[in-house]
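Why do we care about 3D structure at all? Because function follows from shape, and shape follows, mostly, from sequence. That is the central idea of this module. The next example makes it concrete: a single protein chain, its amino acid sequence, and then its structure expressed as tokens.
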Amino acid sequence: MAVDIVIYHNPACGTSRNTLAMIRNAGIEPHVIEYLKTPPSRALLVQLIDRAGMTPRELLREKGTPFAELGLGDETLTDDALVDAMMAHPILINRPLVVSPLGVQLCRPSEAVLGLLPEPQLGAFAKEDGEAVVDASGQRVA
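And the structure:
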């Protein structure tokens, strides 16, 4: 059965690369959207945030972004203002955001993706830093 998975991916991000690799380790080839090159529309971004059960503030990325320069730490900013900032500066959208038939989730840490995959892991998987996540039988390492 074909499984439709979408990952909003940044190839420069280790967490995003590990998440993508775990999707592929389940035998699934996802639709990879490099959101810095092809950002979601405003309506889609709002829908993804809602489906993930998050607030725009929870999806905001601080590290390596213009978060501080734009004053986005101001708690009085509205959700609309935060979404506007993410639309103007897609680097502010935290990643990887994964869409599957089982839901939408920001996969930080990367192994959070395992709960979104309707197919089991096909074998062992270790993150880029060597941390074992899945053993040779495809079971999650505690």
